[in-house]
Amino acid sequence: MFWIWGVFWVVLFIFAVVFLISSLVKVSPHEKAVKERLSKFQKVLDSWWHLIIPLIDHIQKVDMRERVINTPPQEMITKDNAVVTVDAVIFTQVYDSVKAVYEIQDAFLAISNLSITTLRAIIWTMTLDQVLWERSEINVKVQTELSEETAKWWVNINKIEIQRIDPPRELMDAMNQQKIAQQQKRAAILEAEWAKEAAIREAEWIKEKQILEATWEAEAIERIAAAKAKATELESQAAVEYFKDSAVTQEQLRVIESALKENTKYILDSEVLSLIKKVKLW
C-alpha cells in the first residue's frame, strides 16, 4: 500500500515539474509573442519570461528583425521581346506582430512571389536598353508597388536591390566581342603613341648627341689653334732674341775686319778669339 502512495507522489511530482516547465515561455529581445487563450487573441507578450496555462494558452512568436528575401532567378520578357534573367534581394520587416499573424499565413513567402510578379509586369513595359541601364528606377518602382500591397499585412519593404540582369546569350556574346574590339583598339592606340614618343625621344637624343659632338670638335679646334698660336709666339720671341745677339756679333766682326786691313798689330783678348771661333763655326 505504501509503495502505491510512493509511486503516486513521484508521478505527481513529475507532472508538476512538466507542468511548470510547460508554463514557462521565453520571448527573445528581437521577438514578440501573440498569446491566444482558447483560440482567441488575448495580448502581445514582450521579451521576457512569461507564464501560460498549458493546453489552454497558445503562443505564436514573431521575429521583428529585418529579413532578407532572395528571389530565385526568373526569365522575363521585355517590351521589345528580349528575354532577360532577373533576380532580386528584398529587405523587409514586420512592424505589427498581430496583423502579420492574422492577416496572412506566410508574409515572407507572399512577398517573394509578389515581387517576382511585380518585376515581370514592370520589365514588360520597358525595352532591353532601359532594363539594362535603368536598374535603380526599377528598384524604386518595385518597392513602391510592393509597399502598397504589403501595407495591409503590416509588413514594411525597406529596400529592394536587383542583383543581376542577364541579357540574351547572343547579346552577351556581341557585347563581349565589342568590348574585346574596344580593348584592342585602345591597345593599338597606346602602342602607336608609345612608338611615336619613342621616335621623338630617339630624335632628341640624336640631336643632342650631334650638338655635343660639334661642341667637343669646336673646343678641340679652338684648343689646337690656341696651342699653335702659343707655339708661334714662342718661336717669334726666340727669333727676336737670336737675331739681337747676331747683330752685336756682326758689328764686332766689322770692327775687327777694318782694323786688320791696315796691317796693324793688335793684341786680342779671349773674348775676341772666342768671337772669331764662333764666326768660323758659322
Task: Provide an overview of this structure.
The chain has about 280 residues and is α+β, with helices and mostly antiparallel strands. The protein has 3 domains: about 1-60, no CATH class; about 65-165, Tetrahydropterin Synthase, Chain A; about 245-280. The protein is built from 7 helices and 9 strands. The strands form 3 sheets. Strands 6, 7, 8 and 9 form a 4-stranded antiparallel beta sheet that branches. A 3-stranded antiparallel beta sheet has the order 3-2-5. Strand 7 and strand 8 form a beta hairpin. Helix 3 crosses helix 5. The protein starts with a helix and ends with a helix.
Structural features:
282 residues, alpha+beta, Tetrahydropterin Synthase, Chain A, 3 domains, four-stranded antiparallel β-sheet, three-stranded antiparallel β-sheet, 7 helices, 9 strands
Topology summary:
Layout: H1 2-23, E1 24-27, E2 31-37, E3 40-45, E4 48-51, E5 57-63, E6 67-70, E7 74-77, E8 83-94, H2 97-102, H3 107-124, H4 128-133, H5 135-150, E9 155-166, H6 169-261, H7 270-281
Antiparallel strand pairs: 1-4, 2-3, 2-5, 6-8, 7-8, 8-9
Helix pairs in contact: 3-5
Care to give the gist of this entry?
This protein is α+β, with helices and mostly antiparallel strands.
CATH-defined fold name of the largest domain: Tetrahydropterin Synthase, Chain A
**How much helical structure, as a percent, in the residues?**
55-70%
* CATH H level, superfamily name of the largest domain: Band 7 domain
- pLDDT averaged residue by residue: 80
Cα distance, first to last residue?
176 Å
* Total count of domains: 3
Over all CA atoms, what is the radius of gyration?
Answer: 59 Å
Number of DSSP strands?
9
Envelope shape:
elongated
Oligomeric form: single chain
Largest sheet: 4 strands, antiparallel
What are the segments in which pLDDT stays under 50 over at least 5 consecutive residues?
none
